[in-house]
Design brief:
By secondary structure, the protein is α/β, with parallel strands linked by helices. It contains nine helices and ten strands. Helix 3 (83-89) links the parallel strand 2 and strand 3.
Length: 282
């Protein structure tokens, strides 16, 4: 059995506190035992209308295995569903961020983090037991200011395991090669951790639609090294929010994209250039 398979029983399911009572109790108990008043790391779970996924995410976090003191907090990005109720039922302290965007939600988590390190968690994603342990250990390495890990997709009737394996192999190889010269391009928010003090120096951009995580990594390069963690025990599993096309189409799209950006493996940039279509319209 894959480590994440138990969580699929409540993944993509409307929250029913009575029908899911045994899971809710396990999650509540597990998270309560993990919460520290003097955390080394803050795990913030950002959520916008994630009632159907949040319980599964918190369930995976409740089985965390780590030697480091942690705190787990939530950020409800002013959801219109029962996202806040899921946080409450599971005993997770959370904050409501009324301005909508990943940037605002991640900044809210950073603002309230008490740990030395901040791990942003996406609420539609499942995390293996040693994820936090491995990420924090990597962040503690001398000269390190940020760490990015990898992720897989949940196999389903539309996405075969073999197809996903080839797709992820290509993507992972590209991200690994790219991180040597341009680590900011290999960072993804769902598997990114960083030094809190350094991040607060720059803040998280809220005026762009996507890429707030990469831009933060771009800024953090001035403070230290952005490391790339390839350990499978730190590999998250998520849904298909970023893969809207068929695997074959997505694979071919990536081949063409990687071929056109081949020089990024060998050159770095000192200036970030905004794309007009990525700016939030005022």
């Amino acid at each position: 059995m894959k480590w994440y398979e138990p969580y699929l029983s409540v993944y993509d399911q409307s929250f029913d506190v009575e029908a899911m009572s045994s899971v809710v109790e396990e999650v509540r108990s597990g998270l309560s035992q993990l919460q520290s008043s003097q955390p080394v790391a803050t795990v913030s779970v950002i959520a916008y209308n994630e009632e159907k996924h949040l319980l599964a995410c918190l369930w995976s976090l409740s089985r965390m295995q780590t030697q480091y003191p942690v705190e787990i907090i939530g950020v409800d990005n002013d959801s219109s569903d029962r996202t806040a109720f899921v946080f409450e039922a599971c005993g997770v302290p959370y904050y409501t961020e009324k301005r909508h965007s990943c940037g605002f939600a991640r900044q809210c988590g950073l603002d309230h983090a008490r740990g030395r390190y901040h791990l942003n968690i996406d609420s539609d994603t499942l995390y293996p037991p040693q994820y936090v342990e491995l990420m924090v250990a990597e962040l503690m390495r001398p000269g390190t200011v940020g760490v990015s890990s990898l992720w897989s997709y949940i196999p389903d009737e539309n996405h075969s395991r073999l197809g996903l394996w080839f797709y992820e192999l290509l993507r992972d190889t590209h991200l690994w090669l790219q991180h040597f010269s341009r680590p900011e391009l290999s960072v993804r928010g769902l598997v990114f951790g960083y030094n809190v003090e350094a991040a607060r120096k720059y803040g998280i951009r809220t005026d762009i639609i996507r890429g707030e995580d990469g831009y933060l990594a771009f800024q953090l390069r001035a403070e230290g090294k952005i490391r790339f963690l390839r350990n499978r025990r730190a590999r998250a599993v998520t849904g298909y929010g970023t893969v809207s096309e068929s695997l074959m189409s997505a694979l071919w799209h990536r081949v063409r994209k990687y071929a056109s950006s081949f020089t990024s493996y060998f050159t770095s940039k000192q200036r970030y250039e905004d794309q007009e279509d990525n700016l939030v319209k005022q």
